[in-house]
Amino acid sequence: MATKLPKVPVVIVGVGWAGGIMAAELTKAGVKVVGLERGKGRKTEDYFMVHDELRYAQRYELMQDLSRETVTFRNTEKARALPMRTYGSFLLGDGLGGAGVHWNGQLFRFQPYDFEIYSKTVERYGKTKIPDGMIIQDWGITYDELEPYFDKFEKMAGISGEPEQNPMVGKRSSPFPTPPMKKTPGIKMFEEAAKKLGYHPYMMPSANLSDNYTNPDGISRAACQYCSFCERFGCEYGAKADPVVTVLPVAEKTGNFELRTFSNVTKVLHDGQKASGVVYINTMTGEEFEQPADVVVLASYVFNNVRLLLTSKLGKPYNPADGNGVIGRNYAYQILGGSTVGYFDDKEFNSFMGAGALGSCLDDFNADNFDHKDLNFIHGANISYTQTGTRPIAVNPTPQGTPSWGKEFKQASVKYWNRVLSVGAQGSNMPWRHHYMDLDPEYKDVNGIPLIRITYDFEDQDREMVKFLATKTAAIMKEMNPTKMETSAAMTNYNIVPYQSTHNTGGVVMGADPKTSAVNSFLQMWDAENVFVVGASAFPHNSGYNPTGTMTALSYRAAEGIAKYLKQPGSLV
């Protein structure tokens, strides 16, 4: 039987970016908060002198133990879903800071079009532009309403970016707090080529600090050293913004925050109208506890937010057969394809140096910045050249036709390791009626709780978009004048391997209509007013960007909403 603990005003499930922002904002406002994190604690010192590619990048030191809990996957409802036993398509962070520790630091705001995608698409092209089965919807909030929260996160994290307003994105209320990162020769080549074609390249907004910075909370961090150990690693310098070095120290300093690590939440307690708290297991001792609270915040990763609601029977599960229900609806991913690789026999690049968000990009073919009238898809992609660092185990580029072993393979590997540049496209992903998450009827985790099941595949919309983007990346690379180039334009079916991106979205989506959304614009549940579900699980679709910037902006808005709710309970909209 669970040990019942004293009631607290707010309990947060998961202490990554979303949970850390919640903790900082609410504790600064004088609210007592308990944060439950199922993994271990972390601090910057844990990453000193640990540039160990094998341990972190290949053996997934910072990731969830899949032997204890994983996900199951299938392309269609007719197939049997099987568990993901080894890491492939995406990487599930574990421990304090979550995926906010091992991310690259690429920080974008979704486009104004994204938040009103249904209305804007119909307005410009008519309803027939939206294919049968595609269930895009407006988000219940506009870019202009969310802009102050984008700005708040960027100032807290010290985001580096260009001082001049980029004409291809939403308007900003203030410039980036720190200058852009350094331009490498590869970046200069990309920008010169893109400008020759009439495009609008700009330095990628970066959570890798370009300069020493002290944020509005008084947190000081050092500038990036361009060491290349960003993605899959914690930053030993504290230069990469993550919850452990930004928002969590602020929450701890207030004295209003209690962090409990190794605390795996298994159930949200509720009476069908309001939640009364959560149940969690101490993963070290096996003890079970009940934590009562006035407000419950689910701030864990997409899969776990959805799973907790389904196992707790809170909110109506989505049914793809009739389209009713909301929990598990609108699962989306990210479309990575249409890239072009250039091999340069006459040039060498210092490509070992880099950073997770060091690069240049353009939005000429993102969102609705271009005419889709004669195209068989909507939305688009951010096209970029990034120099994240050619770590020796992971990076071994050789031209097509090179033997996969032997003398020729070794010679080509040595020759091209620092003679390759790649122009890539990170594409949007639209929701479909038959893409969703539910509980697997067969497989369970170590505690006997059903795993989350993903039903998902690429669609013709995605294939057409990738074919289109391939022509654009190829044109840019051609202007960069490589000795030889290779473009990847074909897509088959989605598979859970190989790695693509940790950009899973949806399942507890936001909107203005309870029939098609689980939470409102403050991420407050329609079905339980004192439950807030925060994270990329709220996205009704995924854009042509990394989701972190938009997810954190929504987190700041949700924290503001919770503070209002504690003073005057009820619906916030």
UniProtKB/TrEMBL annotation:
List residues of the Glucose-methanol-choline oxidoreductase N-terminal domain: 142-332
Membrane spanning residue stretches: none
Q: Which Pfam families match?
A: GMC_oxred_C, GMC_oxred_N
**Which residue numbers delimit the Glucose-methanol-choline oxidoreductase C-terminal domain?**
438-554
Q: Which domain of life is it from?
A: Bacteria
Please report the organism this UniProt entry assigns to the protein. Paenibacillus contaminans
Protein family according to the UniProt entry:
Belongs to the GMC oxidoreductase family.
Region described as Disordered: spans on this chain: 161-182
**InterPro entries given in the database record:** FAD/NAD-bd_sf (IPR036188), GMC_OxRdtase_N (IPR000172), GMC_OxRtase_C (IPR007867)
UniProt KW keywords: FAD, Flavoprotein, Oxidoreductase
Name under which the protein is recorded: GMC family oxidoreductase
